[in-house]
Design a protein that fits this description.
It is built from two helices and 36 strands. The chain is mostly beta strands. Strands 15, 16, 17, 19, 20, 22, 24, 26, 27, 29, 31, 34 and 36 form a 13-stranded parallel β-sheet that branches. Strands 18, 21, 23, 25, 28, 30, 32, 33 and 35 form a nine-stranded parallel β-sheet that branches. It has a five-stranded antiparallel β-sheet with strand order 10-11-12-13-14, with no helix packed on it.
């Protein structure tokens, strides 16, 4: 039989042993040392000069003095000297100096990691801090503040989306209704948006291709230092291009571009490539370009038929500023070719008008100037229709009618105190329909050219104080 116990090496009292109390007390002393084991420190290499009775230390590698050669053992101060106890694998000791729990692995003492390990927190279905996470909000925090700090250098918060059409953004809400959003919302352009609770308005849009800043809802604009020509090509263009070194695909994108600048007195224009520019909705001009005489839209000045703008609604809808059109064919199967209202102004020359279900030009408190030759090649309800104090000035132009177009209401209608004036204008070709209608205090001034001056095969009329002269 062994003289000591197999686990703690406590001495056994032997048969017929004298002074049994010595063996018993030695075992008690050992138990007193290792049960509920604590140590003053685990990193001290030199024995303290005045250790308290019963103080214990884990002897580290490189120990000196009385501790030399006892690395890994428990050193206990007893009666002015040191007693060393050999540790066994699995022993644990609480270190008072560092408030750490250490364990002996059979060779060295190592720190015991308490609680969860890093791997325990991977691939969790959700985390709720002071609230409940759900299938959409996998991480949910209810707190007065959330701190994300550096670990010694910088810090990045990363939002990654799957594809360009998805959204990666920061959404700010009040009572669970969104009122502000910033990020990549449905594209790769950076946008800052605000909401009135129902409708969203883009305040700032930054093109990810070139860094160009736009203010779709108005605001600060880049100021030009030279004339601006924006290229539009429905075949070779792409609305992700910059429109300057490479063309946009749509006129709408070009208008958005030029309406976002401060012209500074320079010209702003769209140059349309030959081809058909098919619209999905009206081309809206609802703000003037600061310090610009007009927005110019130019097609093929030699052959207007080479540039065709068509759609299933109004083509140009102008409610602010000035728009100047040249060198293109306009046609629509549902609406007007050009609508002008709210005091806006459109001028054009070298335009070829194709068919329109409404008027070729519809003015409602709007103004129009025809400054050069044009062709009318398609039927319409009216060629030009003026309402509510609108004005029309046609000067020094030859208007050519081909294909004998038919005007269902009249060639020229002037209503409710509107004024139309012709000076130095000649018409060639023929048309079918009423020549004119002047009504409710409106004036059509053709400079005394006679009742058959305007195109048509039916006499015009004057009523309710309308004047034709």
């Amino acid at each position: 039989m062994s003289d000591t116990s197999p686990i703690l090496s406590l001495p056994y009292i032997q048969p017929s042993q004298a002074q049994k109390h010595v063996t018993h007390n030695e075992a008690i002393r050992t138990l007193d040392t290792i049960v509920q084991l604590t140590a003053v420190a685990a990193d001290r290499t030199d024995p303290p000069a005045a250790a308290a009775e019963g103080d214990r230390y884990i002897v580290p590698n490189g120990a000196t003095g009385a501790w030399a050669g006892h690395a890994g053992k428990i050193a206990q101060s007893e009666s002015g000297s040191w007693v060393f106890i050999e540790a066994a694998a699995g022993w644990r000791c609480f270190v008072l100096a560092t408030t750490e729990l250490m364990a002996f692995d059979g060779s060295v003492w190592v720190k015991v990691s308490g609680g969860l390990q890093a791997d325990d927190l991977a691939n969790l279905p959700g985390v709720g801090i002071n609230t409940t996470a759900d299938a959409t909000n996998r991480l949910a925090v209810a707190a007065d503040a959330t701190l994300l700090s550096h670990a010694g250098a910088g810090h990045q918060l990363k939002l990654n989306k799957n594809s360009q059409s998805d959204t990666a953004s920061l959404l700010m809400q009040s009572a669970w209704t969104g009122y502000a959003e910033m990020g990549l919302a449905g594209s790769n352009d950076f946008e800052i948006k605000v909401s009135d609770g129902s409708n969203w308005f883009t305040a700032i849009a930054i093109d990810h291709q070139n860094g160009m800043v736009a203010f779709p809802s108005g605001g600060v604009r880049p100021q030009l230092t030279a004339d601006l020509t924006v290229l539009i090509d429905p075949v070779a263009g792409d609305d992700q291009n910059d429109g300057i070194t490479a063309p946009y695909a749509t006129i709408a994108r070009g208008l958005q571009h030029v309406m976002g600048v401060d012209a500074g007195g320079y010209a702003v224009r769209l140059q349309l490539a030959d081809g058909t520019h098919a619209l999905t909705g009206p081309l809206v001009v609802n703000q003037a370009v600061p310090e610009a005489e007009a927005i110019e839209v130019i097609g093929n000045l030699t052959d207007p038929a080479a540039v065709v703008i068509n759609g299933a609604s109004d083509l140009f809808a102008v409610s602010a500023g000035r728009l100047r059109l040249q060198g293109m064919t306009l046609e629509t199967n549902s609406g007007h070719c050009i609508t002008v209202h709210d005091g806006a102004m459109v001028s054009y020359q070298n335009i070829r008008f194709g068919p329109a279900s409404g008027a070729h030009v519809q003015l409602d408190r709007g103004h129009c100037a025809v400054t050069g030759d044009c062709e009318i090649a398609g039927d319409a309800d009216s060629h030009i229709n003026l309402r509510h104090m609108s004005s029309l000035q046609v000067s020094n132009a030859q208007i050519t009618l081909t294909n004998t177009p038919t005007f269902a209401s009249q060639f020229l209608g002037s209503f409710t105190a509107s004024v139309a004036e012709f000076s130095g204008v000649t018409f060639t070709g023929a048309a079918t329909g009423k020549r004119y209608d002047s009504w409710a205090g409106s004036v059509i001034n053709i400079g005394g050219q006679g009742a058959a001056y305007l195109p048509g095969d039916t006499a015009g009329t004057e009523s309710a104080g309308g004047i034709y002269l």
